[in-house]
């Protein structure tokens, strides 16, 4: 099929005196195609085929209603419509649901605000390092203040309770607590 832009190029080339063979060679199209499009009075518009009925058609109103009620889980909806006689698969259902599914507008994470001096978060990190030619595991104690996000990091050789207590004490001294 010739695109609308190409249709006008064909008409223009013919008005400039080019033969059908010259136009077909220039555009890389068959001579019969060029001749057919030269006969046409105007460019044809693309007509979308009418949508065919699918096996999901009888269940679409029910699915829309359930989605408005808040059920956005395709697996749950599939079970419900299968109980009503649907014989198709989940892919067809998901393709129908995708354009009408509401987009998530909330943030993935919410910032947790605390007053000064109220909270700190603590965690351990694990690392493997080369220490004098040998692989050694070391740990990082990390404390972050909730209000200012100020951070204290200390590397240790173990995660024992005594080490944890010592890290807490040194972190508090560092923060001036």
Automatic annotation (TrEMBL):
Family: Belongs to the transposase IS21/IS408/IS1162 family.
Domain HTH IS21-type intervals: 5-67
Lineage: Bacteria, Bacillati, Bacillota, Bacilli, Bacillales
Organism field: Brevibacillus fulvus
BP terms from Gene Ontology: DNA recombination; transposition
Chain ranges passing through the membrane: none
UniProt protein name: Transposase
Molecular function via GO: DNA binding
Keywords (A to Z) from UniProt: DNA recombination, DNA-binding, Transposition
Keyword Repeat: no
Source species, domain of life: Bacteria
Alphabetized PANTHER family for the sequence: TRANSPOSASE (PTHR35004:SF6), TRANSPOSASE RV3428C-RELATED (PTHR35004)
């Amino acid at each position: 099929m010739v695109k609308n832009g190409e249709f006008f190029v064909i008409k223009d080339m013919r008005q400039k005196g080019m033969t059908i063979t010259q136009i077909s060679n220039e555009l890389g199209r068959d001579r019969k195609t060029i001749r057919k499009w030269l006969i046409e009075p105007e460019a044809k518009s693309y007509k979308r085929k009418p949508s065919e009925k699918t096996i999901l058609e009888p269940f679409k109103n029910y699915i829309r209603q359930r989605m408005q009620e808040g059920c956005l889980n395709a697996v749950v909806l599939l079970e419900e419509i299968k109980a009503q006689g649907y014989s198709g698969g989940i892919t067809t259902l998901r393709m129908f649901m995708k354009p009408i599914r509401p987009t998530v507008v909330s943030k993935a994470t919410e910032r947790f605000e605390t007053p000064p001096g109220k909270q700190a978060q603590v965690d351990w990190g694990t690392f493997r390092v080369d220490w004098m030619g040998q692989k050694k595991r070391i740990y990082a104690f990390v404390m972050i203040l909730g209000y200012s996000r100020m951070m204290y990091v200390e590397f240790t050789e173990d995660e024992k309770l005594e080490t944890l207590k010592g890290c807490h004490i040194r972190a508090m001294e560092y923060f001036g607590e």
